[in-house]
Amino acid sequence: MNRYNFIAEQSDEGMRLDKWLASQDEVELTRSAIVRLIEDGSVKVNGAPSKKSACLKSGDEISIDIPEPKELEAKAQDIPIEVVYEDYDLAIVNKPQGMVVHPAPGNPDGTLVNALLHRFKGQLSGINGVIRPGIVHRIDKNTAGLLVIAKNDFAHKALAELIKDHDFIREYEAVCTGHFKEHAGTIDAPIGRSKTDRKKMCVTQENSRRAVTHYEVLEELRGCSYVRFSLETGRTHQIRVHAAYIGHPILGDDVYGRAYNGCKGQCLYAKRLGFKHPRTGELVDFSIDPPEFFTDILNKLR
CATH homologous superfamily for 2-66? Predict the structure, then answer.
């Protein structure tokens, strides 16, 4: 167990506890990880547990107990994975369709994490715990495309903050059913978990978070549309939920639309990532060509 002690200064007056802790260089944790520690009682203000929303006062004594990292539980597996870019702090990988990002009940191995543990051998951040080393953000099992992987906690924290602050370019391309009335637009509709099916998300005003997706139709196909989506926020299943919400579910999405012959899942891939490098501050930008399954479907519908 590592304990860090701080004293709030005059300039810290009025700051939320979770936000303030996330800004401390000694605490190399994401804000969500800090919130979990606050909820577990591992953070104290003036000797007593506090709420994440508590506002600090000058002179407050803050302590945070950070547990030692657990021994890695996910096993390294020699699974080929395409690395688009790699440096000391991060890597950009191209996840194939059908691969789960991290182990979970029902998917104990064969995941991207298992492949990363073999490929990077001890060079992954530990902020997200033993099951998700290096994982800063996720894409669905049947969504192909680019993911950024953190190789140390410094990079992980910086990348997570960029995503939280919406300072992170994430572009996707998809084939959606039907033809759009407007060829470009913005979907601003809150997303929360469905009350009728806990495995699904939906647009709802109850227990939801704001979700914003921008879209542009690139080409009209036979009964479908080739569309570029850009994420402003990053909610679970956001593009899939928003596409279905406006009446154009993604082709092959058997959760929010319906299956399509010849497609293993939703016809969607993460094409582009852009962000300021956590070490240099320089803008880096990565993009890939459509995967083969995506191109095949485009050609079939042209």
Answer: RNA-binding S4 domain (3.10.290.10)
Residue 117: enclosing H or E segment and its boundaries?
A: helix 112-120
The rounded Cα 163 to chain-centroid distance in angstroms is: 8
Q: Which CATH superfamily is domain 71-162 in?
A: Pseudouridine synthase (3.30.2350.10)
Share of the chain above pLDDT 70, in %: 98
Is the pLDDT score of 258 beyond 70? yes
Q: 121-125, 159-163, 228-232: which has the highest mean pLDDT?
A: 228-232
Q: List, edge to edge, every strand of the sheet that includes 43-45.
A: 2-7, 61-66, 43-45, 48-49
Active site residues: 140
List of E strands, the chain: 2-7, 43-45, 48-49, 61-66, 82-86, 90-95, 144-150, 169-177, 184-188, 191-193, 201-203, 208-209, 212-220, 224-231, 268-276, 283-287
- Please give the pLDDT value at position 129: 74
Q: Indicate the SS3 state at residue 209.
A: strand
pLDDT per residue over 101-116, tens digit each? Answer: 988 767 788 999 999 9
Domain covering 169-271+294-301 assigned CATH 3.30.2350.10 in the classification:
yes
